[in-house]
Write a structure and sequence with these properties.
The chain is α+β, with helices and mostly antiparallel strands. It folds into two domains: about 230 residues, P-loop containing nucleotide triphosphate hydrolases (Rossmann fold, 3-Layer(aba) Sandwich); about 110 residues, Jelly Rolls. Helices cover about 35% and strands about 20% of the residues. Strands 5-6-7-3-8 form a five-stranded parallel sheet, with helices on both faces. A four-stranded antiparallel sheet has the order 9-16-11-14. It has a four-stranded antiparallel sheet with strand order 10-15-12-13, covered by helices on one side. The longest helix is centred in the C-terminal third of the chain and has 15 residues. It starts with a strand and ends in a 19-residue tail after the last strand. Bound molecules: adenosine-5'-triphosphate (ATP). The site of adenosine-5'-triphosphate has 10 residues, from helix 1. This is ABC-type nitrate/sulfonate/bicarbonate transport system, ATPase component. Pfam families: ABC_tran, cNMP_binding.
Amino acid sequence: MSVQIRNLCKTFGSKKVLNNLNITLEDGGIYCLMGPSGMGKTTLLRIIMNLESKDAGEITGIDPDVEISSMFQEDRILPMLSAVANVNMMYEKKRPVKEIKEDLSQILPKKCLRQPVCELSGGMKRRVSLARCMHYQGKMIILDEPFTGLDMATKQEVISYILKNRRNRILLVATHGIEDAALLGAEVIHLENCQELTDEMQAAIPSAQEMEEKLGGEPDGLISSSLKQMLMGAGEMSVGAYMMRHMAETNLKLLDGILESEWENMGSILDGRIQEFEAGKLIWNIGDTCTEFAVVLSGMVAAYTESLKQVESLVAKFGQGRCFGEMLPLSGACSPVKVVAAEDSRILFLSREKLIKYLNSLPTEKDGSKIMFSMQKETAQYLHVSPEALSKELNDMERKGLIRKEENKVQILQPELFALRPDSGIRSIHK
Ligand SMILES: Nc1ncnc2c1ncn2[C@@H]1O[C@H](COP(=O)(O)OP(=O)(O)OP(=O)(O)O)[C@@H](O)[C@H]1O
């Protein structure tokens, strides 16, 4: 059953904060709550959680006392307990420490898991709070500014953790970053669009001109929200580059099931070559045709895409054991990204031809085409649309002249519609 917020009103003294607010949160939906600072995001979340009284209106479809797990703007963790103990407190019947440690090590360095959390950095404490929240069972997860203090790479790890552990619960995240919505595959709820604005509220909202100055051009409302977010988050990234980022987030590995110790051997079986790259050296350039499949044997590589304005944006980082650009050699596509060694790295390149033969000889679920199919399905799920809806949206956009679909790429013809905030995560990182 969906959660319905109807005609909600809240006043503090003489200040109207929420005025006849209406929002519906569908079962299993992912939402980002956005709005100018002071617009009432935290107040709304607190009312949903029954921590703040409302003046009028009703919220149905959720029992706030037992069905909501939440992460507040401040970390509500016990400072003298370890991360593991803080998380294990969420269970009446304690879970094995090993299990909690394994879970936490997805977002925290292993060595800090048994330390009192008061000794951890601000960003680490945020992650302990988040893990506690994710471990509580319920119907809805509420996160208030969960990404403060996290760099882009950590944020991607944390988002991947959230998506993996969400288990189809409603996810409502208050945030200021539009790229967070794209990374989460969330529908954006603009608080100012869901209520009757008083003159005072209206005055607090930046004007279109102020927004334009701040954002460098407002995106148009032509395109459906999930796809628009995908493209905004992706900048002028091709679908291939976007999928690459998605793969980094979801930790998909084509070589899953093959022992790490076997990878170098695969090099000899599959006509592979190992090459060393010093930090900063270019591995793949945009537009290179990929005929080889690359595995990071040691070090770290970073993939960047380039916008029409020549701004480079980090797509994803791939560390030891990760394969990058899996889809590209398999489909024989041109590289939509530039890959650079972020540290001194050893890369194993496998021949595409031999690799495909090898994959075809594997049991059917390891077959290349099936992997490609599941990737598409995953991307559609990640964007929170059905695969049919995804392809329909792309067709509609093509008809409107917004994009041109190529075999493996989507070229954006009107980039101004997808303008990015200059302060979004999509920024010039690499010169
Ligand atoms: N307990 C309170 N008493 C009086 N005023 C309050 C109280 N809580 C919030 N407010 C006011 O209500 C308005 C909305 O605050 P709220 O924290 O919900 O905004 P927000 O959108 O979450 O802001 P931010 O993005 O900066 O976190 C602000 O003007 C704030 O000063």
